[in-house]
Amino acid sequence: MQHFKTLSAYLAYLELPRPEHPMFSLFSSLSDGFLPCPKESSPPITNDCYTISFKKFVQGDLTYGRTKYDFTNGALFFIAPRQVLQWTDAAVFEQKGFSINFHEDFIKGTELAHQIKKYGFFSYSANEALHLSPKEEKQIELIVENIELEYQSNPDSFSKEIIISHLGTLLKYAQRFYERQFIHRTELSTDLLERFNKQVEAYFDSGQLQENGIPSIEQIAEQLSVSQRYLSDTLKKETGKTSTEHLQLYLIDEAKNILLDPNKTVAQVAYELGFEYPPYFSRLFKKKEGISPTEYREKYSLN
Hints:
303 residues; alpha+beta; Jelly Rolls; five-stranded antiparallel β-sheet; three-stranded mixed β-sheet; 48% helix
């Protein structure tokens, strides 16, 4: 798989103009014209850059793999360093918006370098992009216009600091707007939780637990056709618990039933539930229930 260590090499591969700064670039059509189009297709590639882009397609569709996405109303995308990118058979299209690309070293040593790792949306897939309302779109555009002003001006000792400050503000707004999107898509969120529970239940019923151990969140997310981070963030917003917590609760509920069998030791229960180490199962059970598996058995086996 081809990997690009510099921003210039990455943009050259995309057949886009060279950046004004060796570690930061901005393409914008907010005032007039269209965004430059990258090459139509690419095998899997990676790079050391962050990408924040807003795309509003005026003509044509964008295809990732076998899925075609229509972003006529505009969507905000986020890509993190070393994330695998691949696109095929992209139609020729005209698009409005902006595309910000910066090398991870551009923010090294700054507060943003620590904060940016906390934003889950950099791990979301294309179908989980942030769809902006007209008002939200305007707020983002104002921030990008300020970034563009600094980017196009003669650089001085404050330029980089100001650009990074604006980037931090942009990401904070993105976090706020994603929260709104989760809230407004309650029906979808509820459906995702139901599908999550059904997927875990099907895994247990199929006997895979004893054969392959506890499923990873990544495995479950893949079966649900969503990214791991989006699954966790959506469930967290909808229920207050992450996907890992929901899986743990399912395991604990199963454990409660098995523990009532007096012929099985706590260790046997742990192994039956896919835990490699019984002490970890006991600690998790006590953390969630307030009592140990043995205490639970003694308390309820006589009732």
